[in-house]
Amino acid sequence: MSKLVQGWEVVIGFETHAQLSTHSKIFSRSPTDFGAEPNTQASPVDLALPGTLPVMNKGAVERAIAFGLAVGSKIAPRSIFARKNYFYPDLPKGYQISQYEIPVVQGGSVEFYVGDDKKSVRLVRAHLEEDAGKSLHEDFVGQSGIDLNRAGTPLLEIVTEPDMRSTEEAVAYAKELHKIVTWIGICDGNMQEGSFRCDANVSVRRPGGPLGTRREIKNLNSFRFMQQAIDYEIRWQIGELEDGRAIEQATVLFDPDTGETRAMRTKEDAADYRYFPDPDLPPLVVAQDWVEQVRAGMPELPRAMAARFVQQYGLPEYDATTLTQSPAMAAYFESAAKACGQPKLASNWVMGEVSRRLNAQEIAIEQAPVAAATLGALIGRIADGTISNNAGRQVFEALWSGEGGDVDAVIEAKGLKQMSDTGELEKILDDILAANADNVAQFKAGKDKAFNALVGQAMKATKGKANPQQVNDLLRKKLAG
Amino acid sequence: MALTHEDIRRIQHLARLELQPQESERMLTQINGFFSIVEAMRAVDTSGIEPLAHPVAAFEDVQLRLRDDVASEPNAREANQRSAPAVERGLFLVPKVIE
Amino acid sequence: MSLHDLSVAELARRLKTRDVSAVEAAQHFLARAKLHDDLGAYLARDEEVTLAQARNADERIAKGDTGPLLGVPIAHKDIFVTRDFPSTAGSKMLEGYRSPFDATVVRKLAEAGMVSLGKLNCDEFAMGSSNENSAFHPVKNPWDATRIPGGSSGGSAVAVAARLAPATTGTDTGGSIRQPASFCGITGIKPTYGRASRYGMIAYASSLDQAGPFARSAEDCALLLSAMCGPDPDRDSTSLDVPAEDFGRQLGASLEGLRIGVPKEFLAEGVAPDVRAAIDAALQQLEKLGARRVEISLPRTELSIPVYYIIAPAEASSNLSRFDGVKFGHRAKQYGDLLDMYKKSRAEGFGDEVKRRIMTGTYVLSHGYYDAYYLQAQKIRRMIADDFQRAFKECDVIAGPAAPTVAWKLGGHGGDPLADYLADIFTLPGSLAGLPGMSLPAGFGEGGMPVGLQLLGNYFQESRLLNVAHRFQQATDFHAKKPEGLQ
After folding, report:
1. Does residue A31 sit at the B interface (CB-CB below 8 Å)?
2. Measured between alpha carbons, how far is C223 from C49 in angstroms, rounded to an integer?
3. CATH number of the structural domain spanning residue C186
4. Domains: count for chain C
5. Is residue C450 a contact partner of residue C444, using CB atoms and an 8 Å limit?
6. CA-based torsion, C351, A97, A218, A74: positive or negative
7. How far away is chain C from the Cα of B22, in angstroms, using its nearest Cα?
8. C272, C211, C258: which is closest to C399 by C-alpha?
9. pLDDT, position A265
10. Average pLDDT over chain A, rounded to whole?
């Protein structure tokens, strides 16, 4: 069921270009590293020098297969490379080698949640193609400088059906897709570096009416911009239609400074790309046993893993989804959970104390100074009553900052062991009850707050070393009796 | 099927060729001369025939060869840019690209 | 006997025995090239570069290095990119262009020790049948300087015919080796598509272009072809994975029982009587050598003209898009914005025929026309390939003229491109099917002009073709004739 905007239904489809994480380019042996000096990673093939020809990179095909498997699509046993012909300075050959009629990946779907609603977006296809170079405008007056380092980087273009019905849904889809491609290791997902770029096709229509004319917002490379751009575009289109103007098909760019979308100046007059099969490249054949080989080497996918966490560890969906944000985080959690046998506690700690520090320091979990096993050991000591939760946080801080490496050693060094001798505790509690006759009386008169005050006193008297649960239980017993 | 002036204008633009009016005129006549023999080709019944994009496919099941993912191409910018019309600081210069 | 009358095989022998040095041989041919510059065969030479290569070859010979081509001079069609000479493809678009790499074919011949004399004139981007489409100057036929040499490898054919090089490289997309060989009275062969690497061959029509040698005999062509062919999997994805061969291994085999298929369409009314007479005589000669003539039919011969001239321009229109004045090649001196720069640079850089083919190619690929033209042409192409397979069930090799006439006068087609296209009728079918084909001197026709016999073989049958040609050349001396009064 669609969420209408001012009575209009929003229809969104995505085309995402994911740069594949190969060492070399798709048709040449140039390196693919980001940030090199201009044209130092542009070989004769990349520059389209006369006489050069393309030779296909196996790693790019393998990554396409992995993607297809991850989204449940069909891997075409035979697919064709085609030339998409157009002129642009960052397109050295004057055509892009892509796939047209028969792509390597066909169909598939991506599932994700928007709030509590489960959504599924159908994929039309995913195909291999080469990236173009870059134009730089800043330093040149009236001219542009062309850097072809990026030209020839392998791309997987992932196309959806127009299944999305809100900005929220669209951004959630993009985030899920981003997670999938980084999870299976085919793309580094670095959006600032242009590794993952989305084009959003947006149109609006009256519910039950025919599809409206769509405009394509190109090159959205952040989720925030995606959301702003689509929201603006929807409002703009509705505004136009309600003012009686028709929407003209156009390619638009989002301007982050103004928050607006505007049509691109170069009108391609419904560009005629004159696609035809590239005579320099015979058909790509992917045998079933190669597909099986790739399948065997694939990691457990995030959705499946999250479902397993719910089932195996009894975790709530929210925890499972959060913990499966990356393979490293999920592995960390599982290690810790297995070490202490307390999955919910492990989940809390990973989502809480660990994640907080990772975010503050802007590091990834792979760089966490506390190993999962160590965290597991710590949680174990809390669970078995050796230390309180509070003490646990102190120990963790010490471990994280490198003060110590062993849980028990740190507990010992800081003298954080909880009071385990109930005899001593009972005596302290008796003293407190004796010294706080008013509170006792108030509690017996029905004031619960008085109880907390007594607990507070007990914790103070034991210098925090008493087990709060024990204090609670014993006090109640004494007060009852 | 004869081409028109409009066709010439459209193709010229697609092919990024600037033709003078007499050139366009001459080209139209010459290309139409050629297309007069193309009609026979269009009339052939090719139903059920697969196009032959790679001649090798006529005698063997030709497949795309895949190479190992190794980055072995060195930086040869100077040599590669030797014949460039306009280069500054390693970048190819062109009239400003407006989007 | 002058150095330039020696065959490649014989010259190689004398180099090996150090009867003559590579430097001497190179100097000899450089001098001849200069002497005959009026023929227009060469576009570029560089004495220093050539002599340095020759000295290298002499060093190798002195060290005891051997090889059937070591120290032998060669010149390359300007479609092959070379580091040591400019590469223009016969076009103003690439005037002065220096490639940072050598074409694989060039590299292979250099590794075999051949010495580069320079680059040879051709029709612009290999588009033409007369070498009148060269942006620089036309090439003249040494048998009659008022006539064309054929194209697009006109310079390569003339260099061999006028003894300006013992052998040369050419390319054949629709007949550009076979037809000039026929018009210039020399031997030329195009291998099965995919046998020779296209890496470094400035692309015209990707699914048709193939490299091949010109020389004065089948034996010499065999030596060259063997060195030129071989898989190039790291650089050319259409290069076939078949090992290099010695194409001369069965040169001397008997022709007894050989079935020679003569397509009735190849000797129909369109063929000039002098050509028909020469071909008939040549076929009789082959019968004397034990072969048997069989009439076959290639019913779609005439259709090959529109089919080829749709497919080749289509591929070319795309291949030539890289010439945009951005990274290399001609850029206009005056232009406004980017669009203007593209349009002017390309208009100035390309000649008329190239523009025509780009326009035609763009049209047949454009929206709404693709199915009716390009796709239709590729389907008929398959039918043509199938026709050949049917024919090869009844014969071992196919024979006929390479062209309907002898070489025509310069300007003789009156600038009518269609006339040029129609004259390609006999070479186009073999190109479309990707079959190996050659032309060898078979007689003379009108005006004393050479007539070539075209032989087509089934896939991978190059050595059989060379065998037939060799046996023919042992029994005749057309291939040994020289243009009268050639200095």
Report:
1. yes
2. 24
3. 3.90.1300.10
4. 1
5. yes
6. positive
7. 12
8. C258
9. 64
10. 92
Alpha-carbon distance C374 to C314, whole Å? 8
User: Residue C79 corresponds to which tokens in the numbers above?
Assistant: 């479609």
Name the residue range of residue C20's domain: 3-256
Token output for C110: 């250099």
For C3-60, list the strands marked E by DSSP.
42-44
Q: What does each C-alpha distance from B6 to A14, A72, C373 come to in angstroms? A: 35, 47, 19
pLDDT in tens, C81-116: 999 999 999 999 999 999 999 999 999 999 999 999
Residue C286 within a domain: no
Amino acid, res. A90: D
| Residue in C439, C304, C464 with CA at minimum distance from that of residue C382 | C304
Tokens 């087509």 sit on residue: C456
Asked if A264 reaches chain B (Cβ–Cβ under 8 Å), the answer is yes
Give the number of other Cβ atoms within 10 Å of residue A480's Cβ.
7
Record: contact B17-C355, CB cut-off 8 A: yes
Residue B99 pLDDT class (50, 70, 90 cuts): low
Neighbouring residues of C411: CB distance < 8 A, sequence distance ≥ 6:
C132
Q: Which fold has domain A422-480?
A: Arc Repressor Mutant, subunit A (1.10.10)
State the pLDDT at residue A307: 92
The CATH architecture annotation of domain B1-44 reads Orthogonal Bundle (1.10)
- Decide if C327 and A85 are in contact by the 8 Å CB cutoff: no
- A279 and C101: CB-CB below 8 Å? no
Nearest to B92 among C326, C360, C432 (CB): C326
Judged against a pLDDT cut of 90, whether residue C167 lies above it is answered with yes
Q: In DSSP terms, which residues pair with A96 in a beta bridge? A: A84
**Cβ–Cβ below 8 Å for A51 and C207:** no
pTM of the model: 0.91
Query: How confident is the model at residue A269, as a pLDDT?
Result: 53
Q: What pLDDT does residue A472 have? A: 85
**What confidence tens digit (pLDDT) does each residue in C340-379 have?**
999 999 999 999 999 999 999 999 999 999 999 999 999 9
Tell how far CA B57 is from the center of its chain: 22
Q: Facing residues of A156 across strands?
A: A18, A128
Q: Please name the residue of chain A whose CA is at the shortest distance from the CA of residue B60.
A: A282
Q: List the single range of A331-340, A439-448, C184-193, C381-390 with lowest mean pLDDT.
A: A439-448
The two tokens of residue C50 are: 């050539």
- Residue written as tokens 């009386």? A441
State the Cα angle at C374 between C369 and C378, rounded to 5°. Answer: 150
- Which residues does chain B have within 8 Å of residue A287's beta carbon, measured at their own beta carbons? none
Whether C91 maps to a domain, the answer reads yes
d(CA A302, CA C7): 72
Query: Considering only CA atoms, which of C385, C360, C379 is closest in space to residue C127?
Result: C360
C404 belongs to a structural domain: no
Structure tokens at C419: 């006339």
Q: Is the pLDDT of residue B1 over 80?
A: no
This complex has an ipTM of 0.97
What are the b/e assignments for A175-184, b being 16+ CB within 10 Å? ebbbbbbbbb
Q: Residue C185: which region, alpha, beta or left (left: phi > 0; alpha: psi -120 to 50)?
A: left
Closest CA to C322 of A90, B78, B24: A90
Distance between CA atoms of C437 and C398, rounded to whole angstroms?
A: 9
**Closest partner residue to A279 among C201, C206, C235, by Cβ?**
C206
The residues spanned by each domain of chain A are 9-292, 300-414, 422-480
Helix (H) or strand (E) holding A78: strand A78-79
CB A23 within 8 A of CB C62: no
- Is residue C283 domain-resident? no
Tokens of A98: 């892509």
Tally helices (H) and strands (E) across chain B. Answer: 3, 3
For chain A positions 137-156, those within 8 Å of chain B (CB to CB) are 137, 140, 142-148
